Amino acid sequence: MIRQASTPLVTTVKERCRVCYTCVRECPAKAIRIAGWQAEIMPERCVGCGNCVRVCSQKAKQVTSSLAEVRALLATGQRVAACVAPSFPAEFIDLDTRTLVGMLRRLGFAFVNEVAFGADLTARRTREMLEENPDRCYISTSCPAIVSYIERYYPALVEYLAPIASPMVATARALRRLHGEDLKVVFIGPCVAKKGEDLTPDGVPEIDEVLTFAELRQVLADTGVTAKGTVASDFDPPRGGTGALYPLSRGALQAANIDEDLIHGEIVAADGRTSFVEVIKEFESGDLDLNARLLELLCCNGCIMGAGMTSDAPLFRRRAIVSKHVRQTLAASDPGQHEDWLGQMSDLDLSRTFRIDDQRMTVPTEDEVAAVLARMGKHHPADELNCGACGYDTCREHAVAVCKGLAESEMCLPFTIEALRKTVGELAVSHDELRTTQQALMHSERLASMGQLAAGIAHEVNNPLGVVLLYAHMLLEETQKEQPLRKDLEMIVAQADRCKKIVAGLLNFARQNKVFLQETPVRDLMLQGLRSVPIPDSVKVQVEHEQERLVVELDRDQIIQVLTNLISNAVEAMPAGGTLTLSSRTSNGHVILAVSDTGVGISRDNMNRIFEPFFTTKPMGKGTGLGLPVIYGIIKMHRGDIKVESNADPAAGPTGTCFTVTLPRQGRGE
Length: 670
Ligand code: ADP
Ligand code: MG
Hints:
- By secondary structure, the protein is α/β, with parallel strands linked by helices.
- It folds into four domains: about 10-345, no CATH class; about 365-410, no CATH class; about 420-510, Helix Hairpins (Orthogonal Bundle); about 520-665, 2-Layer Sandwich (Heat Shock Protein 90).
- It is about 40% helix and about 15% strand.
- The protein contains 21 helices and 18 strands.
- It has helices at about 20-25, 50-55, 65-75, 90, 95-105, 115-130, 145-155, 165-180, 215-225, 250-255, 275-285, 315-330, 335-345, 365-375, 395-405, 415-480, 485-510, 520-530, 555-570, 605, 625-635, and strands at about 10, 30-35, 40, 60-65, 80-85, 110-115, 140, 185-190, 210, 265-270, 295-300, 520, 540-545, 550-555, 580-585, 590-595, 640-645, 655-665.
- A five-stranded mixed sheet has the order 13-15-16-18-17, with helices on one face. A four-stranded parallel sheet has the order 6-5-8-9, sandwiched between helices. Strands 7-11-10 form a three-stranded parallel sheet, with helices on one face.
- A hairpin with an 8-residue loop joins strand 17 (about 640-645) and strand 18.
- Helix 6 packs across helix 8 (about 165-180), helix 16 packs antiparallel against helix 17 (about 485-510) and helix 17 packs across helix 21.
- The protein is rod-shaped and about 155 Å long.
- The model has no long low-confidence stretch (mean pLDDT about 90).
- Bound molecules: adenosine-5'-diphosphate and magnesium ion.
- Magnesium ion binds next to helix 19.
- Magnesium ion (MG) binds near residues 568 and 623.
């Protein structure tokens, strides 16, 4: 079993990853890259600590499986030893030790041994090493993730790693001495990083496969091996002693009978991802007390909290279970025999070597970092909130990670929220614009279909009406003044004339008439419009021209009609007097004429209907409801536009109405 640098120990299950950055935050090696909205583990940077596996609530981190390899190995019929890590009581809480051993034998293991024995050898060797080298300082090496971390990120500290084989390897070497070099060894434990421990000093694997406890449970389930029907049995010799304390934090110190004397400060013990990183950093920078002789570091809070465990028991319960197990085995063991075994193995080679695998990244320049920070909206130190939501402790660390291609600037939560807020605002505005446009469109569609109807009727009525008028006039001429019929005929003529006007209005609305374009000074238009409407004294008139001499191309008579209608509506809306304002200005090749009043205003309900033919709020005989439709038709014939703003509610402010007519300066009407 040789792990290639490119073979990951842990991978992300893409479908499950919700990109919450928790794994980024918890990874001490910063080996997780967010790319394309996926948390991706970089195998060359990963130290296998398994923190990401433990913290992922979505179970999106998967430990690379060795199940198939172990099954294949057992199927070969070769002698395979199962080396069980001393944390097993914390995993198999519900199983008594002898039953577990029996179950392993049922799986086909020829030997079932305790790694605690290897730990005893390692502990003894560590103590000797410290005694033989009183001036040297060591970092203990039973935790493969710590070793891996130092080899990758603190190459200068590799020389401090104690050159002593791990308990797992020590056990394997002892067993091979006992049972022959062809013995196959499977380590079973709580650790993911063990799968990546470099175990091939001379090309021959010392450990053939590594199973986590979780995987062992899988093998047992797959093969149907349960406690039922299992013949309980003891571990094979050599049995473990206090080495069984190794999986507890500071347990290795006790096993080696090394006193963590706080007064002398020679021993520094740290466990858990924040502590171990801090200690290594301090050690490298020289901040750590010069007295320190042994750094006892564990990546997890003791191996009993390893990511390969399935147990959900809390830390101190697990500690208590392992302690109790050690107490019981020590009480039942024969110390003389244990010493014997240790003596037999006293000349066993426990050496190991290390390999620097520098994965440090070049530090980006201050300018590069500043550019990334600016991209995340952080232009001043005060903008750096250091909220940690991105998975990095500070905005600066996040920016550095972005420079190195490990992170994306979108991971910044405050920045993303701000961007989102902006987008929502913009969407709301464009939504409003869309709604207004849609309403205008519906309105003009309705008016267009009314126009068609009106035009149809007007055409049909126009001819018979002409005949009625012709004959009525003929009759009128032939009738003497004093004849009683005369009055009736006059009435017919008057009413038919009125009909004629209405029909003409409808044709205008339906844009069935032609426009006759000519250059016209706007000032004259306004004056003509004003002159054709009688304006009572109570109404004050204001005229405002942006350009006094503005000349535009339009159908003079028709536009005067537009102004006349608008002015008379305005005057009628101010029975108690007020101000009438006429204005003109230009914008983008258009002329904008506005007629506004301080009258009663148009209610919201009526607003949508004022351009409909025959809609009027005025009493019978006063309004025809054709003024605005005619205006509408004329303006559309000019390819222009008319808009109205009005307030009829005194509670909402001064009442009044403003009609704005926009016409092209170079008439394009047909
Ligand atoms: P009419 O003037 O014959 O009623 P219009 O088409 O000119 O027909 O106007 C339709 C309706 O629009 C009016 O009856 C009135 O309710 C409303 N209106 C038009 N202009 C104004 C205005 N300046 N102020 C208040 N209401 C107006
Ligand atoms: Mg009118």
